């Protein structure tokens, strides 16, 4: 798809199925329903891309070609209500807002090709969440992680690898059930 800009004066834009884009994604205004139809937005690219505008999507996959970056624009938060899949690429943000560059409210899966970045993922869902690592102690990396759950349990599974900050602020954490 070409660059996407969501700017609705009225009505609701409902996302459905899998939407894959290799260009910039901009949310400006309007009602966006990304969860009713269990939609997935895949950010894949052979160029650096920017995600602009604080908004909520259901399932999100970052699958950029090696070495390419997805940047969440300054002072913006992309909330992922469903599963956040980090397959390949980096997530950057030059100014990280207090609420985080990506707010993960569902499950998180880390792949071995994902190599971190300067952004931050705040794990802040109110229900049960599972964070599944890549299973490899030498491949893959995460950006900064902050666990700040008001309720629900975050269960860690497999090997989760990061060379960046890992901050626990609040919430129930289960690191033993799945031998993480």
Descriptive notes:
- The structure is a single chain.
- It contains no helices and 14 strands.
- It has a five-stranded parallel β-barrel with strand order 2-3-6-8-5.
- The chain is mostly beta strands.
- The protein has strands at residues 4-21, 25-43, 49-52, 55-57, 59-63, 69-72, 78-80, 84-92, 102-104, 108-114, 120-123, 129-132, 144-157, 166-178.
Which strand order do you get reading across the main beta sheet?
2-3-6-8-5
The main β sheet shows up as: 5 strands, parallel, barrel
Shape: globular
Low-confidence stretches: none
Helix content: under 10%
Cα end-to-end separation: 38 Å
Class based on secondary structure composition and strand pairing = mainly beta
Quaternary assembly = single chain
Note the beta-strand portion: over 45%
Overall average pLDDT:
90
Over all CA atoms, what is the radius of gyration? 15 Å
What is the number of beta strands?
14
- Give the number of helices: 0
Order of helices and strands: EEEEEEEEEEEEEE
How would you concisely characterize the structure shown here?
The protein is mainly beta. Helices cover 0% and strands 61% of the residues.
């Amino acid at each position: 798809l070409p660059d996407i800009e969501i700017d609705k004066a009225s009505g609701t834009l409902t996302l459905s199925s899998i939407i894959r884009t290799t260009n910039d994604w901009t949310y400006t205004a309007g009602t966006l329903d990304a969860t009713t139809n269990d939609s997935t937005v895949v950010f894949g690219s052979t160029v650096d891309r920017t995600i602009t505008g604080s908004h909520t999507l259901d399932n999100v996959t970052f699958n950029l070609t090696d070495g390419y970056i997805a940047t969440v624009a300054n002072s913006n938060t992309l909330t992922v209500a469903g599963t956040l899949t980090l397959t390949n690429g980096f997530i950057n943000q030059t100014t990280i807002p207090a609420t985080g560059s990506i707010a993960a409210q569902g499950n998180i899966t880390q792949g071995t090709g994902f190599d971190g970045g300067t952004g931050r993922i705040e794990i802040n869902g109110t229900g049960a969440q599972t964070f599944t690592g890549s299973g490899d102690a030498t491949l893959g990396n995460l950006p900064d992680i902050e666990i700040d759950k008001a309720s629900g349990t975050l269960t860690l599974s497999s090997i989760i690898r990061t060379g960046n900050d890992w901050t626990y602020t609040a919430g129930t954490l289960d690191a033993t059930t799945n031998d993480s």
